[in-house]
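> Could you send the Heme exporter protein A prediction when you get a chance?

Sure thing. Input:
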Amino acid sequence: MERNDEPLFSNLELSVLPGQVLQIEGRNGSGKTTLLRILCGLTLPTSGEVRWNKRNIRETHADFVTDLCYVGHVPGVKGDLSPLENLEFFQAGRLRRTGMSAEQALERLGLPAECEEVPCRRLSAGQQRRVALARLLLTEARLWILDEPFTALDPQGRDMVERLLAEHLAADGLAVVTTHHVMAFERGEVIKLDLSDG
Ligand SMILES: Nc1ncnc2c1ncn2[C@@H]1O[C@H](COP(=O)(O)OP(=O)(O)OP(=O)(O)O)[C@@H](O)[C@H]1O
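Output:
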């Protein structure tokens, strides 16, 4: 992959299986976010392809999108909408919904109830991250792609994200996560990729 005519990374070939999390590490600017965006189909690689269930995601886009939940580095919550409205907006998109309500998801993510109806721009960075991550509980998506999900969270928040990941992997979900946080799961395997060396 190239950015601004400079090579970022090359010769990457890897697979992620149910119950596995691919942990991507690397120095700032090494291409972690770029790789996640390629895996989501948001950025085109200079060469190569991404396959989901053995098929190029460009050919199976509609199916792939319902199997994917991406939470980016910038949490992507709409500042003028409340946490509940943000999640309702998300639920209106293309997804297979779980039985969980937006209120239940926010409660599980530890967002104080009094924050549920205020515009997100008035929430702290960690609270906004919790709103963004609450989406994971509203979709049956098997593939979670998470860019720095532990950023801005306090220790309890980080433990909670680890528990969510543990449950997802134990249920045969897959995840790709950029983080330098140490992750270990009883019923899930962590595969590491370091982009620092190109
Ligand atoms: N939209 C873009 N257009 C052109 N170049 C970009 C774009 N996005 C990122 N880059 C460049 O690609 C390189 C990799 O950026 P990327 O955000 O993927 O790195 P990263 O490993 O996620 O960094 P960080 O750890 O700082 O978040 C950087 O040099 C960056 O300037």
